[in-house]
């Protein structure tokens, strides 16, 4: 399962949680192992779970991004049992809260929840427990409103803190908070307030779909505050949204695309050059003639249309030869936004797919992949551990996905005999036994989750078992999925399909750790049947860093 993780440390104590170094590895703690087995009846932790627990148990603030079902709850539930006092869990959905509390209680863990409708007696008991050193209460779930809006409750939290019983603050499903209109996003400010008020309390954020701007915000703030950067977006609208979002968080950002007036564009450009605007959020239109030496980061909010464009765009970072970061957020949905636009160019689609292959690649050196596009060879050893794959090398795990591929193809075949066409999303529904019965095929139903199905489909697109078929209307461009030119190899059983996935992390002990470790990690665990190369709604974080120019 793709586990994409951003560790954002606000505290000055340490850099990233991926850095062990001191005695921050709790994996060997016998208490941890014992509790895992005796309370949760779980044999082993998944790698990201362990890293997260290590981070939060050593008092660091972090965000864990992991697809639904990845096992985020355990990352705070287990530490809660190992820590003195109460873990406060902010959870936007009442049903989710109930599920968790019930499940914990069934494991004999003392957990409680408070929402607007909570019974007075429960409220009273909880408030007592919060400050009572002999109370067994370990986890307290509350709604965002409760914490943000109820002064009375906050006063009790303060008492709990003063009593030394506020163990940890957890924000579960960070993204839901904003989607449900809970006004929780501005509450990153609220998080700052919490941090100021409860400086000793580690904060742990959990989400399956952190909007990239959430990460960008913290990345920019912690890594390159007040320094120059560019964020490339797919559309004009998106660039406006991202710019507004950053501005609302106090980051000086300007927007740049063809619909911005020439006057305003030149104002923004100048402001950026003289550092009164730090981040330019732009469509690919921005770039001609940029020669600012100290661009510290280039973020692709959506993938580039080709590796060549990526190269040009990222090449704007680090011209002063100082360390800079380039990040791509990748998700399959974005491919279907780009493809109708590039398909009219002769090699447009092929270039886009090369870009996709780059994003989903399991372990090759990113810089070698870029060099190859220009017909050059860059040996891995020359990368200097300047790309994410070289920095954190992983084993490759091969997985046979023939059965799912053929199921997917059967669904497309059925659709084409009925002369209908399916979008990727409809195909996934059909495979999961959802949506119109007419789209489904007996025997193909799978319990695989969306993110894994996206990996399968991506692989099939890249291997031409399926292809995109475009439908243009005045209002929208739709990409359907239909059988591709290699489909017969799958139908006749000639081809077995194997996919390369990120496996266990290679031990890199022999190599001295780099200074200025990046604060973000993307990695893939190797244990479950869900192992995959990309996220579902999540965007996969594909990074490179260093001096992009020298990769030419
Ligand atoms: P998420 O919040 O990421 O969607 P959950 O925390 O609800 O996921 O966990 C999903 C399921 O995975 C739960 O049934 C949980 O018990 C199980 N699980 C979590 N961690 C592990 C593990 N290390 N080994 C086996 N099962 C696990
Ligand atoms: Mg969850
Ligand atoms: Zn590399």
UniProtKB/TrEMBL annotation:
<keyword id="KW-0479">Metal-binding</keyword>
<dbReference type="Pfam" id="PF00270">
    <property type="entry name" value="DEAD"/>
</dbReference>
<dbReference type="InterPro" id="IPR027417">
    <property type="entry name" value="P-loop_NTPase"/>
</dbReference>
<feature type="compositionally biased region" description="Basic and acidic residues">
    <location>
        <begin position="538"/>
        <end position="552"/>
    </location>
</feature>
<dbReference type="InterPro" id="IPR002464">
    <property type="entry name" value="DNA/RNA_helicase_DEAH_CS"/>
</dbReference>
<dbReference type="Pfam" id="PF00271">
    <property type="entry name" value="Helicase_C"/>
</dbReference>
<dbReference type="InterPro" id="IPR011545">
    <property type="entry name" value="DEAD/DEAH_box_helicase_dom"/>
</dbReference>
<keyword id="KW-0547">Nucleotide-binding</keyword>
<feature type="compositionally biased region" description="Low complexity">
    <location>
        <begin position="525"/>
        <end position="536"/>
    </location>
</feature>
<dbReference type="InterPro" id="IPR014001">
    <property type="entry name" value="Helicase_ATP-bd"/>
</dbReference>
<dbReference type="InterPro" id="IPR004589">
    <property type="entry name" value="DNA_helicase_ATP-dep_RecQ"/>
</dbReference>
<keyword id="KW-0347">Helicase</keyword>
<protein>
    <recommendedName>
        <fullName>ATP-dependent DNA helicase</fullName>
        <ecNumber>5.6.2.4</ecNumber>
    </recommendedName>
</protein>
<dbReference type="InterPro" id="IPR036388">
    <property type="entry name" value="WH-like_DNA-bd_sf"/>
</dbReference>
<keyword id="KW-0378">Hydrolase</keyword>
<comment type="similarity">
    <text>Belongs to the helicase family. RecQ subfamily.</text>
</comment>
<keyword id="KW-0067">ATP-binding</keyword>
<keyword id="KW-0238">DNA-binding</keyword>
<dbReference type="InterPro" id="IPR032284">
    <property type="entry name" value="RecQ_Zn-bd"/>
</dbReference>
<feature type="domain" description="Helicase ATP-binding">
    <location>
        <begin position="53"/>
        <end position="228"/>
    </location>
</feature>
<feature type="region of interest" description="Disordered">
    <location>
        <begin position="1"/>
        <end position="29"/>
    </location>
</feature>
<keyword id="KW-0413">Isomerase</keyword>
<feature type="domain" description="Helicase C-terminal">
    <location>
        <begin position="214"/>
        <end position="360"/>
    </location>
</feature>
<feature type="region of interest" description="Disordered">
    <location>
        <begin position="505"/>
        <end position="552"/>
    </location>
</feature>
<dbReference type="InterPro" id="IPR001650">
    <property type="entry name" value="Helicase_C-like"/>
</dbReference>
<dbReference type="Pfam" id="PF16124">
    <property type="entry name" value="RecQ_Zn_bind"/>
</dbReference>
<keyword id="KW-0539">Nucleus</keyword>
<feature type="compositionally biased region" description="Polar residues">
    <location>
        <begin position="4"/>
        <end position="17"/>
    </location>
</feature>
């Amino acid at each position: 399962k793709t586990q994409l993780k951003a560790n954002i440390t606000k505290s000055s104590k340490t850099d990233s949680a991926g850095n062990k170094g001191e005695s921050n590895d709790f994996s060997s703690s016998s208490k941890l192992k014992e509790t895992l087995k005796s309370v949760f009846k779980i044999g082993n932790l998944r790698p990201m779970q362990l890293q997260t627990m290590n981070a939060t148990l050593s008092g660091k603030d972090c965000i864990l991004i992991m697809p639904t079902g990845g096992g985020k709850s355990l990352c705070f539930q287990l530490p809660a049992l190992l820590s003195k006092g109460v873990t406060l869990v902010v959870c936007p959905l009442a049903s989710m809260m109930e599920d968790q509390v019930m499940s914990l209680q069934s494991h004999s863990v003392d957990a409680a929840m408070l929402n607007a409708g909570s019974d007075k007696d429960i409220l009273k008991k909880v408030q007592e427990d919060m400050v009572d050193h002999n109370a067994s209460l370990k986890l307290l779930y509350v709604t965002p409103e409760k914490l943000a809006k109820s002064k009375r409750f906050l006063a009790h939290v303060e008492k709990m803190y003063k009593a030394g019983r506020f163990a940890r603050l957890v924000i579960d499903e960070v993204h839901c908070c904003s989607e449900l209109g809970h006004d929780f996003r501005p509450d990153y400010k609220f998080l700052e307030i919490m941090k100021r008020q409860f400086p000793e309390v580690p904060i742990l954020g959990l989400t399956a779909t952190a909007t990239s701007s959430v990460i960008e915000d913290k990345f920019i703030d912690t890594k390159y505050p007040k320094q120059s950067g560019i964020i490339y977006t797919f559309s004009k609208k998106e660039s406006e949204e991202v710019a507004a979002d950053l501005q609302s968080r106090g980051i000086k950002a300007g927007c740049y695309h063809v619909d911005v007036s020439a006057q305003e564009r030149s104002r923004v450009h100048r402001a950026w050059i003289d550092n009164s605007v730090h981040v330019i959020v732009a469509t690919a239109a921005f770039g001609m003639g940029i020669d600012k030496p100290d661009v510290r980061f280039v973020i692709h909010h959506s993938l580039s249309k080709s590796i060549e464009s990526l190269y040009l765009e990222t090449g704007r970072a680090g011209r002063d030869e100082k360390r800079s970061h380039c990040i791509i957020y990748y998700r399959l949905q974005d491919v279907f936004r780009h493809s109708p636009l590039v398909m009219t160019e002769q090699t447009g689609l092929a270039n886009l797919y090369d870009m996709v292959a780059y994003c989903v690649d399991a372990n090759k050196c990113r810089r070698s992949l870029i060099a190859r596009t220009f017909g050059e060879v860059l040996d891995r050893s020359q990368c200097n551990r300047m790309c994410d794959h070289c920095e954190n090398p992983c084993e490759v795990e091969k997985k046979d996905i023939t059965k799912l591929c053929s199921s997917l193809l059967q669904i497309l075949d059925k659709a084409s005999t009925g002369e209908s066409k399916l979008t990727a999303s409809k195909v996934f529904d059909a495979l999961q036994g959802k949506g119109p019965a007419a789209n489904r095929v007996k025997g193909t139903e799978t319990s695989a989750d969306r993110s894994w199905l996206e990996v399968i489909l991506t692989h099939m697109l890249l291997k031409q078992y399926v292809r995109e078929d475009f439908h243009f209307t005045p209002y929208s461009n739709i990409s359907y999925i239909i059988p591709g030119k290699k489909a017969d190899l799958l139908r006749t059983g000639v081809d077995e399909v194997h996919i390369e996935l990120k496996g266990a992390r290679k031990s890199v002990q022999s190599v001295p750790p780099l200074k200025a470790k990046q604060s973000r990690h993307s990695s893939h665990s190797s244990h479950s049947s869900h192992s995959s190369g990309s996220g579902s709604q999540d965007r996969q974080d594909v990074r490179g860093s260093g001096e992009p120019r020298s990769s030419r």
